[in-house]
User: Fold this.
Amino acid sequence: MTPATPAFETSPSKALLVGPDIDLASIDSRSTPGFSGGKKKGRLKLDAENAELSELQEKLFAESRFGSEVSLLVVLQAMDTAGKGGIVRHVVGAVDPQGVKHYAFKAPTAAEKRHDFLWRIKKQLPGPGMIGVFDRSHYEDVLIQRVRGLAKPSVIEERYDVIRDFEASLVESGTRIIKVMLHISPEEQKARLAERLERKDKHWKYNTGDLDERELWDEYQAAYQLAIERTTTPEAPWFVVPADRKWYARMAVQQLIIDALQDMQLSWPKAQFDVEAEQSRLAQS
Assistant:
């Protein structure tokens, strides 16, 4: 007998949703909001929900071939080692790649710096029927730029308003937005960095600059707190996902995506031809 799929007692869309009154420091990065099962049950649920996610993504893609202009944008933000890559591989990787547009933003190039900070972001937005995934995003321009003093405080302040307006325009044009902060503890990050140094197959993931950023942990947490306070809206909400347990973070983000796609009330496009006539022709061929 196939075991029943473990369920969330509270949907992640409710359990992980934060408002402008967020207190980031009070959120336990090892907690599993809305889910009382352990690692084994969490992995079982992740695998079991892949079929549902894949079907919803295919419906989204199929509808776009018949005029639908809706899309989904998943924004992943986190400190180093928090698991953005794992989300992309184990969650987004379960769907048809032709329906996904993934982009990992790095430090802006000289050419990109000649434009406003959203210029390079707009170039990577998902088209109709696509699931877009941003590994880092326009939020770097109010996070690292604030912490490292790469832009004037007055400029940073203006960007919060620009971001809210930008995201509101995306939603109005048919793009659903899920903004996720993977919330990892400094202790867990240290353990993951140590693993990258100990294992030869992980050396390629290690960046010597990670330790420089780690020294500014408190400053980054304050910058995240402020960014979430200033830019979470009903149209483009933030979800803070505890990320010390990789299995939970992957499962939670998977469910956030499923919930968003289900809320779009997607359906299979109706046939634009006489199905019975085509069946008859095929039988006679």
Observations:
- The CA atoms of residues 178 and 257 lie 8 Å apart.
- The first strand starts at residue 17 and ends at 18.
- The mean pLDDT is 95.
- The chain is about 45% helix and 10% strand.
